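Supplementary Methods, section 5.1.

A reviewer requested that the exact input to the structure prediction be made available. We therefore reproduce it here, unchanged from the version used in the analyses.
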Amino acid sequence: MNDLSYNIWYSMSDKALSEHIGRFIKAKRIEQNRTQEALAHAAGISRSTLSLLEKGETVTLATLLQVLRVIEQLNVLEVFSLQPLISPMQLAKASLKKRKRASGNDHTSSTKSDW
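The structure derived from this sequence is encoded token-by-token as follows.
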């Protein structure tokens, strides 16, 4: 993530962020040629709740998730994925334990048949 986009999100008020999310939802709904009524019904919410979401008003997280699922945009939640971090010290210790060379012993010789 570049510093510019990071600063833009932080400089926005909560209301502005909610309105931005609402515009995203509305744009995706229109892109899919769905009415508010049809999308709200598919998401199991009222049309007025969807309207509030699109206007950037306060709705529950569950409502947002239901709408994102219906418009097939749950991929935006990818930013919440946790990646295991390994410290440089752990990486160095792990590399010390790795084999550097083969031992030269043939481990398959014990399975030779008697013929």
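The chain has a mean pLDDT of 84. These observations are discussed further in the main text.
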